[in-house]
Design brief:
Largest sheet: 8 strands, mixed
Structural class: alpha+beta
Number of helices: 11
Protein name: DUF3857 and transglutaminase domain-containing protein
Keywords: Signal
InterPro entries: DUF3857, Papain-like_cys_pep_sf, Transglutaminase-like
Strand content: 35-45%
Organism: Candidatus Parabacteroides intestinigallinarum
Strand order of the largest sheet: 5-4-9-2-1-11-14-13
Helix content: 10-25%
Radius of gyration: 30 Å
């Protein structure tokens, strides 16, 4: 392919007068050129030329640019520096010795698959200096079991197919970004540019199809708090030579069946028989198998060499090691389900962002599907439900997935989970005396994702820490709080028995502020009590409008009721309240009043209906949350 992308850094500087150098003032660094040129072979393997040039603007930018790093996976790709040049502001030109580049293991946590980084030390830079470099890479993104010579490792899993996902957003000003791909004439390529615009073209050059996409004067993408993933909001290019998702589904099914990923082994069959003994319904069997795998296969991925990526490791490895990443945990469950007589298959999904209609393999997670007696497929995710009463984590609702089933499947979407499936209910019965001491008890119950959050101290913590952890809930309300008694049932570790239920008895001296004949106090249920399960409180509702969608942890129902018995002769100064708000995103009902028997009663019901919201949902969501928060204001009573 012609080197039409190799524009010198000095020629790019001629663009500065066009945009005005002052337009980039205040930025530590400006990218002059960011280009990628890909030549695709009939096998689907790609040869990439990555060409970049940047100008240092400030001392901070100079310090941050002393080393150039590039990440790659040696199992599926090779990368090396071709050249690197420094153009000093004083006119000097320094050609760096790229043979001095170093290749190190990339930092890793939980997944140790041997990722690498090539690094080249640039050295001391000054504002005004320009660095230009080129990296050559061949290969692809994901790995698969292969055989034959070393070059085979650069051929993509779905042989002959090419895809790429190209972010066109930046973290620093970019004067010119180019992506170009040269395809064999016989290959078709579908593409779409999302959430923005670029210049695009297709030309025939030297018996090949050349697609070029260009954007200029790109400014750093401005994020909003709690917004959806950048892939769902910022400009991006998606392309794939695979015609349909069904083709990918069929391939994914075949490659794992051919490898024998789910072949049974006697010792695992014995465990399956033991687990399903006495279970009568299909859902009882599915539940007990899913929970055992979720609770007993530890998440920790070490490199197995060939086979990381789309091929799921076989049951013998997974059941012996009792550890792995999502695909190993899902693969174990699939094998267990098959040994119990079910049809079960793997599925690919993308935790965190949307998957588009173009089959460009935008996946980062593996789950399972099981065929029910009514013929429908039910998704299961043992990776995300350890010690959770759910079988599919509702923290993954509104999430795309692609099952690898024998008949082929289109892209699927996990449904919404009703707020009632994830309720948290707090009922408090308190008494405040004339000295401002609060005494009482409250009971918290929860289900679904809320249950998992509250129960975590019992299922993953030391039993010797249980009481201290629960006491911290009261200490978050007041450092003077004293936990008198706590009742959390017979065995709170048994999460499958019933939803969590904990009752606290306590005393908080000096809880109320006394000023003459008046007292000020906050409702206990609104005073930092179990805020960990109220993820919506971390969303900044001061923001009046939104341009992009936003996310919460999960759909949720919060119901709170508190009765405060006040000393004889005291009355509520606050104006009684009765609020009601309903929208497609959230509902809120609340009331505050004084009863006939020296009781102040607060009631709230907040229903949050989604995990992922559109920007147009913001008004309804924000209004409901702000109404909920307003009940956290001080209550004033007067003698």
């Amino acid at each position: 392919m012609k080197r039409i992308l190799a524009i010198t850094a000095f020629s790019l500087l001629t663009l500065f007068p066009v945009y005005g150098e002052d337009a980039y003032a205040g930025y530590d660094r400006v990218t002059l050129l960011d280009s990628t040129a890909v030549t695709v072979q009939p096998s689907g393997s790609g040869a990439f030329i990555l060409h970049k040039a940047f100008r240092v603007q400030t001392p901070k930018g100079a310090v941050n640019s002393r080393v150039i790093k590039y990440d790659y996976d040696p199992l599926t790709a090779h990368a090396e520096f071709r050249y690197a040049t420094i153009y000093r502001a004083n006119g000097d030109v320094i050609n760096l010795d790229v043979t001095e580049a170093r290749d190190y293991a990339a930092p890793a946590r939980a997944i140790y698959w041997g990722a690498r980084q090539i690094m080249l030390e640039v050295g001391r830079l000054q504002p005004g200096d320009i660095v230009e470099y080129e990296i050559a890479k061949k290969g692809f993104t994901y790995a698969l079991l292969t055989a034959g010579d070393d070059e085979e490792r650069f051929i993509p899993p779905m042989r002959g197919q090419f895809y790429d996902i190209v972010p066109f957003w930046t973290t620093e000003p970019t004067m010119r970004k180019v992506y170009q791909v040269s395809m064999p004439m016989e290959k078709e390529l579908q593409f779409q540019f999302y959430q923005g615009e670029c210049a695009s073209s297709m030309r025939y050059e030297e018996g090949r199809k050349v697609y070029t996409f260009t954007a200029t004067d790109i400014r750093p993408f401005e994020r909003e708090p709690n917004m959806v993933d950048l892939f769902d909001a910022a400009p991006k290019l998606m392309m794939s030579s695979t015609p349909r998702w069904q083709d990918k589904s069929l391939w994914f099914h075949k490659v794992n069946e051919d490898y024998g990923s789910f072949d049974p082994i006697p010792e695992a069959q014995k465990k399956v028989d033991e687990l399903i003994q006495g279970k009568k319904t299909e859902m009882e069997k599915i539940a007990v198998l899913t929970h055992w795998v979720a609770d007993n296969i530890r998440y920790s991925g070490i490199s197995m060499g060939k086979g990381e990526g789309y091929t799921l490791h076989n049951l013998k490895m997974n059941y012996t090691d009792r550890c792995g990443v999502c695909k190993d945990i899902a693969g174990t469950l699939i094998a267990f389900l098959r040994m119990a007589g079910f049809e079960a298959y793997p599925a690919m999904t993308m935790a965190g962002s949307r998957v588009e209609s173009i089959p460009a393999d935008h996946f980062n997670h593996c789950v399972a599907v099981v065929k029910l007696s009514n013929g429908t497929y039910m998704p299961l995710d043992p990776t995300w439900v350890p010690f959770c009463r759910e079988l599919w984590s509702s923290a993954e609702q509104q999430q795309n997935y692609l099952p690898g089933v024998p008949e082929g499947s289109d892209l699927c979407l996990t449904p919404l989970s009703a707020p009632e499936n994830h309720y948290v209910r707090i009922h408090a019965d308190n008494h405040i005396n004339e000295r401002g001491t609060l005494r009482g008890r409250f009971t918290i119950t929860a289900e679904g994702q809320s249950d998992s959050n509250i129960r975590r101290i019992f299922t993953t913590g030391w039993q010797s820490d249980w009481k201290n952890s629960l006491e911290k809930q009261l200490l978050a309300v007041s450092p003077k709080a004293k936990l008198l008694r706590v009742d959390y049932g017979k065995n709170p570790k048994d999460y499958q028995a019933a939803p969590i239920r904990i009752t606290f008895s306590y005393e908080i001296p000096g809880y109320a502020i006394i000023a003459g004949d008046r007292m000020l106090l906050k409702p206990l249920v609104m005073n930092n009590l179990y805020n960990q399960v109220k993820s919506f409180l971390r969303i900044d509702t001061d923001l009046e409008t939104r341009q992009y969608g936003f996310k919460d942890g999960c759909s949720r129902l919060v119901e709170q009721e508190e009765t405060i018995r006040v000393p004889k002769g005291y009355t509520l100064i606050n104006t009684p309240r009765n609020d009601n708000w309903r929208s497609q995103a959230a509902d809120f009902e609340g009331s505050l009043s004084q009863g006939k028997q020296q009781e102040i009663v607060l009631r709230q019901r907040l229903a949050l209906k989604k995990r992922v919201y559109d920007a147009m949902d913001w008004e309804g969501f924000r209004t409901a949350i702000n109404a909920y928060k307003s009940y956290g204001e001080y209550i004033m009573i007067k003698r």
